Amino acid sequence: MGLTPMMQQYLQVKEGCKDCILFFRLGDFYEMFFEDAETASKELELVLTGRDCGLEKRAPMCGIPFHAANTYISRLVNKGYKIAICEQLEDPSAAKGIVKRGIIKVITPGTYTDSSFLEDNKNNYIMSLYIDNEKNSFALSFADISTGDFNCTDASLDISVVLDEIAKYMPKEILIQEGLDEKICSEIKERCTASFTKLPEEFFLSNIVDILKGQFPNFNEKEYSSDLVRCCGSLLKYVIETQKTSLSHINNFQYYSIVDYLSIDSNSRRNLELTENLREKSKKGSLLWVMDRTNTAMGGRQLRRWIEQPLVDKTAVQNRLDAVEELLNNLPLHEDLKDALKEIYDIERLVGKISSKSVNAKELISLKASIEKIPGIKNILSNFTSKLHLEMYKNLDELEDVYKILDEAILENPSISVKEGNIIKEGFNEEVDELRKAKVHGKEWIASLENNEREVTGIKSLKVGYNKVFGYYIEITKSNFNLIPEGRYIRKQTLANAERYITPELKEMEDKILGAEEKLINLEYDIFIEIREKIEAQVDRMQQTARIVSELDCLSSLAIIALENNFCKPEINNSEEIYIEEGRHPVVEKMISSGSFISNDIHINRTDEQLLLITGPNMAGKSTYMRQVALTVIMAQIGSFVPAKKAVISICDKIFTRIGASDDLAAGKSTFMVEMWEVSNILRNATNKSLILLDEVGRGTSTYDGLSIAWAVIEYICKNKKLKCKTLFATHYHELTKLEGLLEGVKNYSVSVKEVGSDIVFLHKIIRGGADQSYGIEVAKLAGLPIDVIDRAKEILSRIENDKSSDVNIEEITDTSKNDIQDKMDVTDKVNNKNEIIKENKNLEVLKEVALDKNASEQIDFSYIERENILKEIASIDILNMTPMEGFNKLYDIIKRTKTL
């Protein structure tokens, strides 16, 4: 037996996309066969059936309706699969023999542009990586097909730098050379969930320059390294081969140097929670969550890029700060600007759909509605004088010609499908108007036919209908056959209890109506294509407008958060000094009750206060303090106001953090190994303009080993003349406080703690001087360890501290406890709940007394702050300007809040 013609055609098509799941169009379904069917049925939970294919065994088969394909495609792409779409390339009714079919598009994780798959405020990048081992260099290129972004860079090969750049973009798909070192691949896979596409070396070499020049007319390969040319060319080649359509919106070749932006390594991005939190990997709880008050999808994506790539150019940072300040100083105009931005759709992705020929008429109306708001935005910009606003005003294209075309041609409420008609406005094209009138006139004639025939025949149940097989017909039930005038109708179809008829006049009108309708649909589609092509010619202008609007939206967002959170405008300089007065953590203060966050100062430089050695107990706020310093610097270099009363920020080139660590058991790395790898990366890559945050270096090993390593790291940072950078170093090793005075630039700081009997209260205030103990047992008590464990820990600690010998007598300490343990457990079991409650209440009263101590130099706890806030609020009430109901509501609110204290 031989394969059937259809299955032969399927296998021929499949040969060209072996690494894809082939969606093979058969009528109204996409069918999958053999291994593809088995994979798809499992991943999509479809019923696996079979089809006779000419072989002894039936071919495994499953299918999906073509109109629901996007849902299934999204699910497969999210799992990392590639999909090849094979369509019918001719009308089956006109085909001779088997219908001609071919692949019209290959969908991959990095090239899928369906709106249901993409996140509005996040780019969908595909990346190409090219490594030249002979030159010891690499190149990276990134593209977002939905928006037209195309960025690239190159440098000497350093895997940590490669990982850091990938962490900025987090691509969905990565193109690599076949034979690339598996160690590099595994390093990338550890930090990135992208799918990998391996391509032969020849793919990175053949026809590359011609492809680049064809896409970017001004591209000159002599200006870039051969690595970069191969990397960019391969990415563009892959995108063109998979999309099989023009990509006119990818028209801006953006090269950047790694040193053009603040470098933040992948570990630091994760520790600082710039765009997602560490726990759920969601936006909430991240810096982006605090800063994103954008009104457009374009602005949301742009702000994410700003956070991922803070600036290092002082002038550029200052220009953004001045623009934000001007918005804050002109609140009425800013409100008008926000209202206008809310009405703007995603112009970037609409332009991408126009370029890829996938835009529909409704989306063009969305584009028109967006362009309609541009003149108002430009008018608002005319009132501003900052350098950035003036540049935006000068370069903002109002796109009047594009708006005019869309306004004159496209209906306000057109069909979603461009092949169903109902797209073109009346008056735009005479032939469309005539066909539309013929269609309407014919349908009016048919509508009146039913009434006329009822009157002539006297058959009240007579009706005129239509279906695609028989066209228009007159239907009469069997009970009325005797009333049909002889020779009036021509029988067309017999039903169980009725007959369907036609008349010569009805057939003639049917031909006119259907002919007009078909011609109208085809004509409207042709006109729509012409309009789309006219608009596509203006892609670069629309992209420029979209870019300016997105940047303006970002500046607006920065102004909103500055106003709402009482941020200050930082002073930017190159003095190698960072001074922050009453600084706060931008995220933490949003997560806790209003007014309860304890602010802190910092002064750090490269001379007398170069390395701040911070000691104090866990849970006291050391890590929060360190993170807020880094986030304040990042926000300032984005061009944002910062959470402080005053801030002087020196431009940093790199930020490194080593805060927290965990076992990487899958990779065979312990906590200590991960910690040492991170510290090593910091010391190798930091410069004298960097900011380093180190938390508990050496804690993953024995005390003396850890102390020695921490000591050596501090010496290296302070004595290495090429490094000697601004550093915050938190530690539990109190012995390190002796380094102040021994090493130039080391200064001791600690977290203030108040002791109340056997209890402690964290003041969350960083003060000058080192801590004398770590309060570890007190922290354990706060965490809820059993009282027996706490008491025994204190007893052991006391014995160890009092032991004057070099070795602690472990056996002696253990022996003294054997007879006491069971007795204590028995006593503990007998303590009733009432006594426990009394004890807790007494402890609470002690803490309250401390909180109310007016002689305390610092704020004590959150309840004290809340009481102070309520008193201030009561004192500020203007009772004479309140209605009785407002006064009642205010009193109710105050009573409710005081009951919780």
TrEMBL record:
GO terms for molecular function: ATP binding; ATP-dependent DNA damage sensor activity; damaged DNA binding; mismatched DNA binding. One of its GO terms (cellular component) is cytosol. GO terms for biological process: mismatch repair. InterPro entries: DNA_mismatch_repair_MutS, DNA_mismatch_repair_MutS-lik_N, DNA_mismatch_repair_MutS/MSH, DNA_mismatch_repair_MutS_C, DNA_mismatch_repair_MutS_clamp, DNA_mismatch_repair_MutS_core, DNA_mismatch_repair_MutS_N, DNA_mismatch_repair_MutS_sf. NCBIfam families: mutS1 (TIGR01070), PRK05399.1 (NF003810). Keywords: ATP-binding, DNA damage, DNA repair, DNA-binding, Nucleotide-binding. Pfam families: MutS_I (PF01624), MutS_II (PF05188), MutS_III (PF05192), MutS_IV (PF05190), MutS_V (PF00488). ATP binds at residues 616-623. This protein is involved in the repair of mismatches in DNA. It is possible that it carries out the mismatch recognition step. This protein has a weak ATPase activity. This is DNA mismatch repair protein MutS. The keyword Nucleotide-binding applies. The gene is mutS. CDD domains: ABC_MutS1. PANTHER family: DNA MISMATCH REPAIR PROTEIN MSH1, MITOCHONDRIAL, DNA MISMATCH REPAIR PROTEIN MUTS FAMILY MEMBER.
